[in-house]
């Protein structure tokens, strides 16, 4: 009897969050980036809050290097840390400088409640959980950003003179996509042989952080701050 090939675990994760990711792709903030209609002040607010987010997000890669069992995994997490601290955050600093936001203002920006809840959820799970739990928390951000960037590049038409061309190009790039793919493959390998209970924990992390991703876009579009 031919043994049926089991689908990669990340395919199961992708299917579980498809409705959430669809809402994210159709969010007015994302659509506003695509057609260039997003108000500059909304994008500036996003850049400042995302800069705060990335400082904590980068710490997850440091935890990944600590939890790694082999040199290759340590090297990859170190590369992810370098990519985030330099390429992504350099883009933020450059964009902000172009619209009059100085580096001092970026460093002084405080996290909103949603930003704080999102990063603390990931940091807590990463510190107290397994390497697979860490990856299942951080993957939705990187994976969905590459999907969004790739979709916007296909749908936006010419990016010449587009106000958000650099942002779209970075997240649509093969280099950024390659980083996400490495995490996908790593999580699939780690998931092999796990019990259904262990896989369910990973799936819950993936769903929760995917929901936080949508809430982050919603937050920066509508300006959700502390109510009091």
Name the features.
228 residues; mainly alpha
Secondary structure blueprint with pairings:
Elements: H1 9-25, H2 28-35, H3 40-67, H4 71-98, H5 103-108, H6 113-128, H7 131-155, H8 165-172, H9 174-191, H10 196-222
Helix pairs in contact: 1-10, 2-7, 3-4, 3-6, 3-7, 3-10, 6-7, 6-10, 7-8, 7-9, 7-10
Describe the structure.
- The chain has 228 residues and is an all-alpha fold.
- It has ten helices and no strands.
- The chain has helices at residues 9-25, 28-35, 40-67, 71-98, 103-108, 113-128, 131-155, 165-172, 174-191, 196-222.
- Helix 3 (40-67) runs antiparallel to helix 10 and helix 7 crosses helix 10.
- The longest helix has 28 residues, at 40-67.
- It is globular and about 50 Å long.
- The mean pLDDT is 93.
Radius of gyration: 18 Å
The profile of the biggest β sheet is: none
Number of separate helices: 10
Number of strands: 0
Task: Give the H and E element order.
Answer: HHHHHHHHHH
Query: What form results from the Cα inertia axes?
Result: globular
Share of helical residues? over 70%
Strand content: under 5%
Structural class, from secondary structure content?
A: mainly alpha
Distance between the termini: 65 Å
Assembly status:
single chain
Low-confidence stretches: none
Task: Summarize model confidence as the mean pLDDT.
Answer: 93
